[in-house]
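Deliverable D4.2, example record:
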Amino acid sequence: MVMSVQREIQIQTYHSPVGPLIIGSFNDQLCLCDWQHRQSRPTIDKRIQTSLRAHYKEKNAPVIKQTIEQLNQYFQNHLQQFDLPLLLLGTDFQHQVWLALQQIPYGKTLSYQALAGNINHQKAVRAVANANAANAISLVIPCHRVISSKGQLTGYAGGVETKRQLLALEKTNIQ
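Output generated by the structure prediction step:
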């Protein structure tokens, strides 16, 4: 009888000052740092587990510990740039958007329109917004820094109030 090896994505819950996050590690890389109660939680979880052909297992892992340490520093205004090994799970276009998100400076915002322009897809504003919404590594990949072209805070996986609080935290720390 052959035993199949179950592939695992180690996960832990992190209780941030603005809401709980699920942090996930696979092969010593961060593949998940996302709002626990987001509306598209099942879709995001299915994409990650299917892509990795693995299931979630509540366990600790070195990259989870490192992520929690950096999140604590971020929320205490001691960290402006995360330095973690990332495993991005999505389409090539999503990867392009997520890499562009990482270029938005701490404490700054950018419109969806400008983000689309930054990746040379000026007419793909809606696709950029959808890729932004599919980001499973919140805060580390700072999708909260993207706003409407009119300067309004629009949809965010953690909720608009959470987005407001994160932007306020960053603004306070750079002045």
